[in-house]
Every structure is written in C-alpha cells, then in structure tokens.
Amino acid sequence: MKKIATLAAVITLTAGTAFAGGYSAPVVEAEPVAVEQGASSSNAGLIVPALLLLGVIAAASSDS
Q1: 10 vs 21: CA distance, rounded Å
Q2: Measured between alpha carbons, how far is 20 from 8 in angstroms, rounded to an integer?
Q3: What is the pLDDT along the chain (64 residues), one digit of tens a residue?
Q4: Strand (E) or helix (H) holding 27
Q5: CA dist., res. 12 & res. 6, Å (int)
Q6: Closest to 60 measured CA to CA, from 52, 50, 46, 49
Q7: How far apart are CA 11 and CA 2, in angstroms?
Q8: What share of the chain is helix, strand, coil (3-state, %, to 5)?
Q9: Considering the entire predicted model, what is its pTM?
Q10: Enclosing H/E stretch for 52
Q11: For 19, which DSSP code?
C-alpha cells in the first residue's frame, strides 16, 4: 500500500509542475513564397508599342 501512495504522491507532484507555465499557442511565422511565372513565348509589354509603331508606319506611308 505504501508503494501506491508513494507513486500517487510522485505523480501528483510532477503533474503540478507540468502545467506551471500554462498554455500559450505556438507562434508560427509564414515564410514568403515566391511565385515563378512560366516561360512566355511573347512579352505583353512589347505588343502594344509594336502595334503603335506599325500604325504610325502605315499612316506615314499612306500620306505620300
């Protein structure tokens, strides 16, 4: 019977120190994610100026 009482006392004492700090939710910081764009066959930034240049060339050639 002494073994059970000693075991119960040890468990009681260790359980109190296990929760001494209380619970705080872990803080997880998200890492930034870089999104890679796939290889494109044409650049959209060059299409509009190219069309404008062709329009100017067509307008200049039709006036003469």
Answers
A1: 19
A2: 19
A3: 888 889 888 888 777 655 556 677 888 888 888 877 766 555 667 888 888 888 888 888 886 5
A4: none
A5: 10
A6: 52
A7: 14
A8: 60, 0, 40
A9: 0.33
A10: helix 44-63
A11: T
